[in-house]
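Page 47, continued from p. 46.
Same chain as before, 331 aa.
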Amino acid sequence: MTRNSISTLLNPSSGHSRWNSLRFPVAAWVLLAALMVMPLGFSSAFYLHLAVLICLNTFIVSGLALVMHTGQLSLCHAAFVGIGAYVSVLSEMLLGIPFLPAAALGAMAASLVAYLLGSAILRLRGVYFVLITFAFGELFRLFMLDAASVTGGANGIAKIPPASLLGFALDTRQAFYCLAAPLAVASVAFLVAFFRTPKGHALDAVGEQPALAESSGLSVRKSQLFAFTVGSGMAGLGGVLLSRYVGYISPESFSAQVSIAAIIMLVVGGRMSVAGPLIGALIMTPLPELFRGAVQSQNIFYGVSLILILRFLPKGIASLALLRRITGERL
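Result:
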């Protein structure tokens, strides 16, 4: 990448970049709306359950997409999901705070912890950053296990009250889906809008060539800290919703495997695509269920499927020509 390409990323009017072409045409929004409305017609409770999980995963992975656009790989994304879940649940169940303020507290707590952690570790690069985030994720899990008097320890917290809006309890799959689906669409819309702004171009430049971006006047550390804080806040809000939908949380619900699953969804969908979180969630959320019947070879089928996708589509499924025409992206 040259200095001119950095300038193009920071100033869309100065030239053509892949984000300049990010129009997300009307056809893409119509298709997305159809996908979101379709599950309401499902007669199977299981399929509707999968649809809810796809929406929640889309929202959570969208936060991870912000972090990865700055060139950092976080292995503690699940910890921020857990912070949002635990703070909101304990605020409501122990302090009697209503759902919406408790949800806001959960998201803000995740953002605050991410800001403090990021301020300390974002000077690290490569494997060192990955190892520290992995250690933080494990530290969070162990802390939740040890604080059993408050968190329930390994037994977790059960009978979590459902989410409620305007006095209506979202205690059915259909009702909760009506909340999860708009939030999934909103997360995609946020990425589309954000990566057309100078701040979004700055994150893209930092991720592609941090040294050159720094020499062009960008603060790599500030850009990465912004992405880490906002992305983790989105993860925290996703944890709030996940805890209310499942009705149960435990430290094992937010292990390193959950962070790895989020990374896989983003990479499979398309790490550099705004549609990557949605596509990855659509593919990877139901995939384990397809192989559930083959108990002995389930992990083999899952692994082979993942290897084939990454081998033949290294930029993710979003790089397929048809999908690029629909979204208007150039990957």
